[in-house]
Amino acid sequence: MERRAGPTQPALIVVDMINTYDHEDAELLVPSVERVVPVIAELIGRAREADVPVVYANDNFGLWRSHHGELVDTALARPHADLIEPIRPDDESLFVVKARHSVFFETPLSYLLWSLDVGHVVLTGQVTEQCVLYSALDAHIRHLEVTVPRDAVASIHPHLASAALEMMERNMGARIIDAKETDFTPAAG
Question: Is the whole-model pTM more than 0.70?
């Protein structure tokens, strides 16, 4: 897929935040998620105000008959609904169901971003040292600009998250910034 000439649009990607938190390592993850949810909610609001696509890329947790509405409803019915409600998808949000770590692995996300003329992804969500890291690498491989607001990604192991952010910056050319520095204006192509 050839990139179009001219300005390219950014997109906000929300990784795996529709979650029931009833999995292994959840007790280590939840405190980090509690810190990033308000930051992600603010970024979602800013992206929506700027007419920037908001794409939820979410694990299906092995529920192969599920769809995004079912994933949201299930998460909202669990004890950590307070972590879902502030960032829940609206009717304009786009949703890609994934089964592996990267948001790109065998999903239609590449084509979706291309069709929207997206050349820059802002990655938020969880887990920094896993899905966010692998998604950043796959975005880099696809010649997309990558920004990761360090205060909008949650981790299980903070020391691994720090290393992952450093690898994204050094090896993938990702911009690692604070969420307040995130710019949703189109970039020159």
Answer: yes
